[in-house]
Design goal:
about 70% helix, about 5% strand, 4 strands, elongated, two-stranded antiparallel ribbon, mainly alpha
Length: about 375
């Protein structure tokens, strides 16, 4: 415990004095990132990998991705469900917007806001919830970037990070090279300035793969996992725009981020792509192409989805469908028939047919004349 405390400087110890709000906020996250990174490094060293070798630290970064993304699985599932609901309610949202189109008075704006929020509440979603995993992961990513980006500065100063990444481990990380040619703290700009062709090739390849994995992941969503109704909404148009905008952001990051960060981002993209594939395959949006493909796969196995969404044998599914059909027929037969509107003259004739008057009724004196 004393060694642990000794290796943990104060949050502002590396700021050179003054108040560093960002550093204070990121400090516990940086400490956690270093702890996970060092733990994986210890594990791979314990099984025989060289402690100062680049592949050891790369595998440690991969282990860091596994820990972070595993912790975010519940949020990811929530994000998928929220995105699906946002896509599905897009037509209803559009109706609300069209209802108040052109109305700019305060009462109309408040009414539109209330109806929109009621729609979100009814379907159990909000626009923010679909971005929650990304918002949660961004501080972790910033902490990781700060840890890896500070390696050069800490190495030159002969110090360690904020936690378990001490001066000795910082020096090992700084001197470690992937395949013996590319330093993990090196950026593409650094590689170009130093003429390190091998590092340029590695970084450029990783950036291309990172862009391709992100593009394919986004393409899976908008091509297979949306219902026809969802493809008519504004959210779908935003998804299509992001499909082409995000690659430019990754080009920027690939140029200025250290190799260690690029590796983390690429491996994280691979995780997202695989996770997204499983979700689309096993939990597709109802009515989407992916849902139809899943139903076909189940049918080939003699199975189907019941009314609650559970996989059941085909016999049970057919029996359920027959029962639902019979219940619907009984409900329709029991429902009162809708009467067609008629004019006054026709209604009077129908009333006379239903309630005919007795012979001689309404003719005063008719009975007396017969008697006489």
């Amino acid at each position: 415990m004393d060694l642990l405390l000794a290796s943990t400087p104060a949050p502002d110890a590396s700021t050179g004095g003054g108040f560093d709000l960002i550093g204070i906020i990121l400090w516990p996250l940086k400490w956690a990132v270093e702890a996970v990174l060092v733990a994986w490094h210890w594990f791979f060293t314990a099984i025989g990998l060289p402690p100062a070798d680049g592949i050891t630290w790369v595998l440690s970064i991969v282990g860091l991705v596994i820990v972070v993304r595993s912790a975010l699985i519940p949020l990811f599932v929530r994000q998928i469900k929220s995105q699906r609901k946002m896509m599905e309610i897009a037509p209803e949202l559009r109706k609300v917007q069209e209802k108040y189109k052109g109305k700019r008075d305060q009462l109309s704006r408040e009414a539109m806001s209330r109806e929109t929020m009621a729609l979100y509440k009814k379907h159990g979603t909000t626009p923010v919830s679909s971005c929650l995993p990304l918002l949660v992961q961004m501080p972790i990513f910033f902490a990781l970037f700060s840890v890896l980006n500070d390696v050069t500065r800490h190495y030159n100063a002969g110090i360690g990070g904020v936690g378990l990444l001490n001066a000795e481990l910082t020096a090992e990380f700084y001197n470690a090279k992937l395949f013996g040619v590319a330093s993990l703290h090196e950026t593409l700009i650094d590689a170009v300035n130093t003429g390190n062709t091998a590092a340029i090739a590695i970084l450029a390849t990783l950036v291309v793969l990172m862009i391709a994995s992100q593009f394919f992941t986004q393409l899976q969503i908008i091509s297979k996992n949306l219902s026809p109704e969802a493809k008519t909404g504004q959210a779908y148009q935003m998804q299509k725009i992001m499909l082409w905008v995000l690659p430019f952001a990754f080009v920027f990051s690939g140029v200025f981020f250290p190799l260690g960060v690029v590796i983390y981002w690429f491996v994280s993209n691979l995780w997202t792509m695989g996770q997204q594939f499983l979700v689309i395959r096993e939990m597709p949006t109802p009515g989407s192409e992916a849902a139809k493909e899943r139903e076909e796969r189940l049918a080939r196995k003699g199975k189907a989805l019941d009314a609650s969404g559970k996989v059941v044998p085909m016999e049970k599914y057919l029996a359920e469908q027959q029962r639902l059909y019979e219940e619907a027929e009984k409900a329709r037969a029991a429902a009162p028939k809708r009467q067609q509107p008629v004019n006054k003259q026709r209604a009077k004739k129908q009333a006379q047919k239903q309630n005919p008057k007795p012979n001689g009724a309404g003719q005063p004196g008719a009975g007396d004349g017969a008697a006489s």
